[in-house]
Amino acid sequence: MTDPAAPRRPASPDDVEVPDPGVRTTTLVLWGTLAWLAVLVVLLLAPPLRAGDRSWWVWVPVAGAVGGVLGYGYLRRGRGNARFAD
Asked: Which UniProt keywords are listed (predicted)?
């Protein structure tokens, strides 16, 4: 049994096992972006959802979709491209 008051050694990145989601990351980002676009369509088709103090609600899915597009582009670019950064 371990003492809960004892300081714990932080795990190194080599000790951590990341579970495989079973789906490519780009696919997850693409579906997330499509979900943000669906929310945007709902907000645009239902004026009461964006009336009054909720006028800023439209910008939330816009920001989510833009972030998703940027993330998708970043992930599609691939790994190992940091060697070109100086």
From this structure: Membrane, Transmembrane, Transmembrane helix
